[in-house]
Structures are given as structure tokens and as C-alpha cells.
Amino acid sequence: MSLIATSLPKTPWGTDLDALRRADPELAGVLLGEVERQSGGLQLIAAENFISRAVLTALGSPLANKYAEGYPGARHHGGCELVDLAERIAVDRAKALFGAEYANVQPHSGSSAVLAAYAALLRPGDTVLAMALPHGGHLTHGSPANFSGRWFDFVGYGVDRSTGLIDYEQVRALALAHRPKAIVCGSISYPRHPDYAAFREIADETGAYLIADAAHPIGLVAGGVAPNPVPYADVVCATTHKVLRGPRGGLILCGAGLAERIDRAVFPFTQGGAQMHTVAAKAVAFAEAATPGFATYAHQVVSNARTLAEVLTGEGLDLATGGTDTHLISADVTGLGLDGRTARGRLAAAGIVLDTCALPSPGRPAGYLKGIRLGTAALTTQGMGEAEMEQVGRLIGAALREDGAVRSQVATLAGIFPPYPASDDPRTGAGNH
Ligand SMILES: *Cc1c(COP(=O)(O)O)cnc(C)c1O
């Protein structure tokens, strides 16, 4: 704990862990415990990462004090000149990074970005075609527990049972039969890239908008290892905190023709004041994502996932689509005599943290989860490569067999790759010159 305290650099506004400890020892204890948890195990949640110190500094800055409803140059509050500059920088960097005509960097989360995209393009009661939830659709793709399922009429497409791949003929047939106002491509667990050109063609054929929910792969797009949905989709929704390694938040990219509708859908329709500390942190993350170091990281994320997929197959896991092209692996564990929740529990007991995963399970009760989902972004940020992935894959296999020796091996491996090493932060490129 003292190590963490002394390694925190002091900011002009005097951020310092001791101040928090003195003011609120209870919360400081929770915070430090969480820092230790994150560094003491293997973080394989596909949506998580370790942001840089530069991004953390922007997030914990007095920009959090500023109210800024509206957009740069058109705010409802005074004193916005400098946060306007921060937002303009974030927008320009996002546009350049993804080759988009327009970017809105205000959505508070990926879900808020999707909500705003729907608000811009749809009316309540409209039909939307999206990936069915048991096949990997997100809550915002029509879950009855979410606004999307209540306000729109969702039709779900799925994956082919034998290959695990999206069945584009089914997508086309459903689009022709239901004439949706919008088609959504994007998933929380599909380990391959959507064929954006095929989706565009189907959308054109049926007169639908195409919304790409690229929350997961947008960081791979930034790093040049995934196809860019921007040229194909009318609106691209994304998160900034997954593979992209920025602050927790959302992002919308679109053509100039939809810019005004998207802006109004974010504010004032679905949100109030922008969180300017987060917007500033997004700007920092976009700049980091434009560096050669980030491209190297993104390539490593994908090759690590490939290696891990091979080892896990050898450990008896049945991988959706037989492997991965992304950072993400979805695996059926029923062949090992387990269900997703039991598998996640055994892995957690060994210090290996990942998610359960919905995979099509006909004949099983609703809520039954037969898979696990994992991703390699966080471990790659920590500096792990293929050699470590072989070790991680074997540790996962052993933990699923409840091999008691795994916990200490996990701790040893994690200890070699601290997420916040004392030396230069590789995420900002500070060590490269
Ligand atoms: C993560 C994710 C979201 C939502 O992001 P939040 O920031 O958690 O709201 C939306 N869609 C997809 C496909 C996602 O993977």
C-alpha cells in the first residue's frame, strides 16, 4: 500500500492518496483493496483494460467541477472557453482516428450512445433488426429489461448453429420480411468481425439505417487490426473504455448529414451536462490510440487471443466459431461437465476473472449460461505476450479442474506484470524516446 501511495505523482491540485486516507479511511481502504485485486489476479474480462496514468490524471482533475450543457461555442453555462477547447480537441482527434466526418464525444456510456442513435433515427414502435440476445446481442439490442425492448419492436438474427458465424442469408430474409427502420450490427461476444459491406447491402436493399455498435472492436479499429465500420454504417456507436483503453464512456461517429440529429439526441434529448473530465480523458486516450505503440499493442491483443484460443481448445473448451479474429473468445464449457456460472466461480477462486456468456442453448431454461467469455486487452496492456498466453491457457484449464496449485501460480504471473509499473508508462509512449 505504501508503494502505491509514494508512486502517485502529485498534481497541481494536490491529488494525493494520503489526503483521501485522512478524509475517508473507509473508502480509501476499499479503493486500495480494489487496486490490489486488479493487480493480484488475471483480468480477462473482455470489456476491461488498464488506462494510462495520463488518462487517469485527466479523469481525476478539476474539469469534473465544470458544468457544460450544450456544445462548444453554444453552452448554457458561462466559463466554458477551456472545456470547449478540450471537447473540440477530443472531437477532432476522434474524427481523425476513425476517418469520420462527425463525432460526438459526450455519451456517458456505450448504452447512452446507442440510446442516442436510436433517438436520432427512430420513433417509438419502429422495428429494429439486431443480433438476438442469446446469440450475443447487447441489452440495448432489444432486451425486455432495457428501454430498447420496451420502446421498439426488435427482431433478432442469430448465428449458424454449426459454424457459429452470422447467417447473412437469415439477416437478409428477416430484413425483407420485417422491413426494419434500422439494422444493428455488433455484439458482446461474437469473436469475428461483422461483414459491414454485407450489412450495408442488406440495409440498402431494404431501406434501413445501418447502426454499427462497435463498442468492443473500436479499439482494434484504432490500432489498424479490424475493419472500420465508419465507411459503411450511418451511425457508429462505441465505448471508449474497452480495447480502446480510454475512460468509461461512449462515442458516436457519423456522416455530416446526421450530425445535427445526433447532437440533439445526445443533448438535450437523452443527457444533461457533459462530463468534461471524461471528455478530456477521451481526448488523451484518442491521442494515445493514434501512436505506433498503440498499433503494436492492438496487434499483440489479437495474436495473444489467437494463441490463447489454441491453448484453450487443447484444454477441452469448445470455442464459438472455432477461434477468434479479435481480442475476444467465447467458449462453451458444457463439454467439461460445467455450466458458465460454475466455470466462472472456479476460475475466480484461482484469481482468474472473466464473464459468463450466453450462447444459443436450445432446450435449456431461460437464464442458463453455457459459456464463458474472455478477452486479452488488459493482459496485453500489462505487457504479456504469446508465451504468457500459453501459461494463462493452461492455468485456466487447471483452474476449471479445480487444481489447488493454480492460485499461487496466477499470483506469481500477475506479479511479474504490474498494471502500473514504477517506470515510464508504456501506454503513453513515454518510454519510447
Ligand atoms: C459494452 C457494450 C455496450 C454498452 O456499454 P456501457 O458503457 O456498458 O453502457 C453496448 N453495446 C455493446 C455491443 C457492448 O459491447
Written overview of the protein:
This protein is of the alpha/beta class. It has two domains: 42-49 and 292-432, Aspartate Aminotransferase, domain 1; 58-289, Aspartate Aminotransferase, domain 2. It has 17 helices and 15 strands. It has helices spanning 2-7, 17-23, 25-40, 53-59, 81-98, 110-121, 147-151, 168-178, 196-206, 218-222, 259-270, 276-289, 292-314, 340-349, 377-381, 386-400, 406-416, and strands at residues 42-43, 70-71, 74-75, 102-104, 127-131, 153-157, 182-185, 209-213, 235-239, 250-254, 318-319, 328-332, 352-353, 355-357, 371-375. The strands form four sheets. It has a seven-stranded mixed β-sheet with strand order 4-10-9-8-7-5-6, with helices on both faces. The longest helix is centred in the C-terminal third of the chain and has 23 residues, at 292-314. The two termini are 31 Å apart. The structure holds pyridoxal-5'-phosphate. Its main location: cytoplasm. It is an enzyme of class 2 (transferase). It catalyses: (6R)-5,10-methylene-5,6,7,8-tetrahydrofolate + glycine + H2O = (6S)-5,6,7,8-tetrahydrofolate + L-serine.
- Helical percentage: 40-55%
Q: Alpha-carbon distance between the termini? A: 31 Å
Count of domains:
2
Q: Which homologous superfamily in CATH is the superfamily of the largest domain? A: Type I PLP-dependent aspartate aminotransferase-like (Major domain)
Regarding quaternary structure, how should these chains be classified? Answer: single chain
Biggest sheet descriptor = 7 strands, mixed
Shape: globular
Radius of gyration: 22 Å
CATH class of the largest domain: Alpha Beta
CATH topology of the largest domain: the name is Aspartate Aminotransferase, domain 2
Instruction: Say which molecules are bound, naming each kind only once.
Output: pyridoxal-5'-phosphate
* Low confidence ranges: 1-5
- Number of separate strands: 15
**Order of the strands making up the biggest sheet:** 4-10-9-8-7-5-6
CATH architecture of the largest domain: 3-Layer(aba) Sandwich
Structural class: alpha/beta
Look at the structure and give the mean pLDDT.
94
Strand content: 5-15%
Number of H/I helices: 17
Enzyme class: transferase
Keywords: Amino-acid biosynthesis, Cytoplasm, Methyltransferase, One-carbon metabolism, Pyridoxal phosphate, Transferase
GO molecular function: glycine hydroxymethyltransferase activity; methyltransferase activity; protein homodimerization activity; pyridoxal phosphate binding
Family: Belongs to the SHMT family.
